[in-house]
Design goal:
The chain is an alpha/beta fold. The protein has 28 helices and 18 strands. Helix 1 packs parallel to helix 6.
Length: about 725
């Protein structure tokens, strides 16, 4: 029995005036059925061409497929032929072989009929390749030539794709976008889209061979790259709502011998025991005319990225008119570089295309749309709005960007922490500078309420990057970290108050404490003037703010003096640790020596207090941070080793295997060169960790390992382990 006994396919090449469509479907069939190539069982493939690709034949083909598969199956749908759009009925459809333009309403295959059939396919491992907008050079005639201004050749393939989309995680890849055509290059027998699909099924894209399969993510990446490389006028479209990075085919037999059997296996598919539902809407009603889109970044949380915010808004009568939707890459599959806070320009471009298309088609019932975006999701929004047509742009009411690196990331951050893995986000790079120039040209004034919001304790994105490209009246500051800023714990949290006020007529321009904004925008003297006279009366938050401002003004001795006299400093190592963490994050963003030294100083003081109080958890927390700083800031391997051993010894005194104990053990063993032990502890830690904690662990582990081993080779086994467990 074939290892791909659960792989099924329905391949349709309509023929008629498009003989190439038959060649396309047949070519895919020949690859799939060949045991030396893709390796599908012959009985699992349904091929419909020419007279078998009639309306009745297509619908029966779906019924036959539905009867064969179960929830463990993977399903490949392939359609090559014409698509159409009947404007009076706002009707998208496929054009079967027996289509009659004079009796179109009884001979077409409506998008709704396709969606109904797809809904009956009892598997979420489903990909639909749609090649439905062929160039004139491929045809012998025009669709609907005998009908006057009724049935027209399809000009919006993304619209057809979205009408077919079942909204449950099916992947759709269309050959081209609005007002584009699907081309055949000179000398080829297949369409360019199908040619690239054939190449990827034959493993032509493979550079490393860690497994003997071709997965959906590889197909997307290859086709998105190669089609426009060869024909710039043609850019594929995808819905990007991939439920599972499942196996589409084998690689050919001659390539299987190249597979590295010792490579670290990557977890690419959804855990079957969980079977999570794909959340595509928080609230959707047929009569609603206003919608809020929550555009998340690339961190991998999907619909959970904004925490309870959508639920709190739905419980609020002031938001009764609004439907609410999550938007972005599915949480069940990684973008091109793996799930992360960052992404490359290609990922952003794909998602921006998808957003623009959804605004036109999927969300067309809404006359008023608000967009809330987080992190790199904000770059996606900006890219999409630059090209959005005026007739739809006018329907946007609000655009709020939270923690978005609109001015990019400093090269030092990319070099030292990620070794330029995300170089497309370099502040001086082509993507960011181009985005800024295009945005400025398109928007001298905004036709929507526009705000960019930074978090006081954002550990990844500087306020300069959030605020820099925009006028001050569009900037706001709120409490929290990069992730917590958009995850309210109650209806009364600051971010909820901010959203409420911005959606109301009396929107305020200052949501958070002015002191916090002064801190992140460099107005340190104002903070000192307010807080220094009453320094000994301050609570923990006020004390942190004052000390930070004093440090920035070069008054480190005064800061230490105030801390040493403050009641909290006598017994609260957490105060010192928080300050140490603040300077550590600042150092990792800007790599200023003074910040690294300040972080080290506060962590040392915190460690002294923790040891005096015999608090084992505080001891290993501060010790492991000092090990990291000893390596990254000072390249002092002796101190790094000493602090790592101290952290390990303190972990032994903690009877509970908490997340941060396991993470500390994993990191400490990196410093001691015990990579197998490190791997074991990280494997246990990652089970307990959410996306924020995973990124925190990954940042330290990746930076430490690459500096110690002097390599950032993605094929390095330990780097592969980190990427697989923390980014995928």
């Amino acid at each position: 029995m074939s290892k791909l006994s659960k792989a099924y396919a329905l391949l349709i090449g309509v023929g008629n005036d498009l003989p190439t469509t038959v060649l396309d479907a047949t070519a895919i069939y020949n690859i799939l059925v060949d045991e030396q190539l893709a390796g599908y069982p012959e009985e699992n493939i349904i091929l419909l061409t020419e007279k078998n690709a009639t309306r009745e034949g297509i619908l029966k083909g779906f019924d036959e497929l539905i009867g064969k598969i179960d929830e463990d199956s993977s399903v490949m749908l392939f359609y090559s032929g014409h698509g159409g759009f009947y404007e009076p009925w706002n009707q998208f459809y496929l054009v079967p072989n027996d289509f009659d333009p004079d009796n179109y309403d009884t001979t077409w295959v409506k998008a709704e009929e396709l969606r109904e059939k797809i809904n009956k396919i009892n598997s979420r491992r489903l990909i639909f390749f749609l090649d439905s907008c062929h160039a004139a050079g491929m045809t012998r005639g025009e669709v609907g030539s005998g009908v006057s201004n009724t049935v027209s050749k399809l000009q919006n393939p993304e619209g057809l794709a979205q009408e077919v989309d079942d909204g449950k995680g099916m992947s759709i890849l269309s050959s081209c976008r609005e007002d584009q055509l699907s081309w055949i290059l000179d000398g080829d027998h297949n369409s360019l889209f199908t040619k690239c699909l054939i190449e990827v099924l034959k493993g032509r894209h493979k550079e490393s061979f860690d497994e003997e399969f071709v997965r959906i993510s590889e197909v997307f990446q290859y086709i998105f790259k190669k089609v426009p490389e060869r024909k710039p006028e043609q850019r594929p479209y995808a819905n990007l709502q991939i439920y599972d990075d499942f196996v589409l085919s084998y690689i050919p037999q001659e390539l299987r011998t190249k597979v590295n059997t010792e490579a670290t296996p990557q977890k690419r598919t959804v855990d079957k025991s969980h079977k999570p539902e794909v959340v595509t809407a928080f609230r959707k009603r047929e009569d609603a005319r206003a919608a809020i889109l929550f555009v998340h970044g690339f961190v991998g949380e999907g619909a959970a990225s904004f925490g309870e915010m959508p639920q709190f808004l739905m419980q609020d009568a002031r938001f009764e008119e609004w439907d609410l939707f999550p938007f972005g890459f599915s949480e069940y599959v990684a973008p091109h570089l793996g799930k992360s806070i960052w992404a490359d320009a290609d990922d952003i471009e794909k998602l921006a295309d998808y957003l623009a298309t959804c605004l036109k088609f999927r969300f067309r019932q809404y006359e008023k749309i608000a967009i809330l975006a987080h992190g790199t999701g904000g770059l996606v929004v900006q890219k999409a709005l630059i090209d959005l047509k005026e007739n739809r742009l006018k329907d946007l009411s609000h655009v709020l960007l939270f923690g978005t690196p609109s001015a990019g990331l400093k090269s030092g951050f990319l070099d030292r922490i990620f070794n330029k893995k995300y170089r497309d986000l370099d502040a001086s790079g082509e993507f960011i500078t181009g985005l800024r120039a295009d945005w400025s040209r398109r928007f001298e004034e905004y036709p929507f309420d526009f705000k960019v919001i930074a978090a006081v304790n954002d550990e990844y994105v500087t306020s300069e990057s959030v605020f820099g490209p925009f006028r001050e009246e569009h900037t706001l500051m709120i409490q929290g970290s990069h992730f917590s800023m958009i995850k309210p714990k109650s209806e009364d949290d600051e971010v909820m108050s901010l959203v409420h006020s911005l959606f109301s007529a009396d929107a305020t321009s200052e949501q958070t404490d002015a002191i916090d904004k002064n801190l992140v925008t460099g107005e340190f003297q104002a903070v000192v003037e307010k807080f220094e006279p009453k320094a000994q009366e301050l609570d923990k938050r006020g004390l942190e703010q004052l000390v930070y401002a004093l440090e920035e003004l070069g008054r480190a001795d005064d800061a230490i003096s105030i801390l040493s006299k403050h009641p909290l400093s006598q017994a609260d190592s957490d105060v010192m640790g928080v300050l140490g963490g603040r300077f550590k994050r600042k150092y990792l963003k800007e790599f200023k020596t003074a910040d690294g030294e300040a972080a080290t100083k506060y962590y040392k003081k915190a460690l002294e207090l923790a040891e005096a109080n015999q608090d084992c958890r505080q001891i290993y927390y501060h010790a492991i941070n000092l090990a990291f700083l000893s390596l990254i800031v000072n390249d002092d391997h002796s101190k790094m080793t000493g602090y790592a051993k101290k952290a390990l010894n303190s972990c032994d005194e903690d009877n509970f295997d908490s997340l941060w104990k396991l993470a500390t053990l994993g990191e400490a063993h990196i410093y001691l060169g015990n990579f197998e032990e490190s791997r074991s502890f990280y494997e246990n830690a990652v089970v307990l960790a959410g996306p924020r904690e995973k990124h925190s662990m990954y940042t330290n582990a990746y930076a430490a390992y690459t500096q110690l081993m002097e390599t950032n080779n993605p094929k390095d086994p330990f780097i592969q382990f980190l990427d697989t467990n923390f980014l995928l």
